[in-house]
Amino acid sequence: MSEHPAWPLTLYYDGDCPLCAREIVALRRRASPQRLQLVDIAAPDFASAAGEPDRATLQARLHARFADGRWVSGLDATYWSWRAAGLERLALLLRWCGLRRALEPVYRLFCRLRPHLDWLPHPDGAARCRQDGCALPPRRDEKP
């Protein structure tokens, strides 16, 4: 892949995943929209465009698309999203073949476990509760 990609990179992420959402918060703080666009595939109004992977495919592994239409996935999508956000030093770690070989099975395991991580605190949990009408459990000292 060219070291001079066609920006912007569009990153398709699962906004319901607490760990994914935390990374997106960090990327959003650092990246300009001219280099990185973010699409939440968990949003109720999300729909794949013609010729794009469907939601199930996008949820199985991180995907990103360059402005010229080229797709990357998995650790490559992570690498390019970090580059788009100006995290060059961190991205360089993913270029090192030894570390990359070690991270690939860890990444595949994370992909399988990710749907079961909803018990972790979400970075915008309070806003989600207001939208979804969450009811807080009664405090221990309160009578139900």
Describe it:
This protein is α+β, with helices and mostly antiparallel strands and 144 residues long. The protein has one domain. The protein has helices spanning 18-30, 55-60, 75-84, 88-93, 97-113, 125-132; strands spanning 9-13, 36-40, 63-66, 71-73. The chain has a 4-stranded mixed β-sheet with strand order 2-1-3-4, with helices on one face. The model is unreliable at 126-130 and 135-140 (pLDDT under 50). GO terms for molecular function: protein-disulfide reductase activity. InterPro entries: DCC1-like, DCC1_Trx.
Task: Give me the secondary-structure topology.
Elements: E1 9-13, H1 18-30, E2 36-40, H2 55-60, E3 63-66, E4 71-73, H3 75-84, H4 88-93, H5 97-113, H6 125-132
Parallel strand pairs: 1-2
Antiparallel strand pairs: 1-3, 3-4
Write a brief structural summary.
This protein has 144 residues and is an alpha+beta fold.
Characterize the main sheet.
Answer: 4 strands, mixed
Strand content: 5-15%
Distance between the termini: 60 Å
Element pattern in H and E? EHEHEEHHHH
Q: Count the helices. How many?
A: 6
What's the β-strand tally? 4
- Low-confidence segments: 126-130, 135-140
The rough form would be described as globular
> What integer is the average pLDDT?
86
Number of domains: 1
Helix content: 40-55%
SS-based class: alpha+beta
Rg, rounded, reads 17 Å
Assembly annotation: single chain
Strand order of the largest sheet: 2-1-3-4
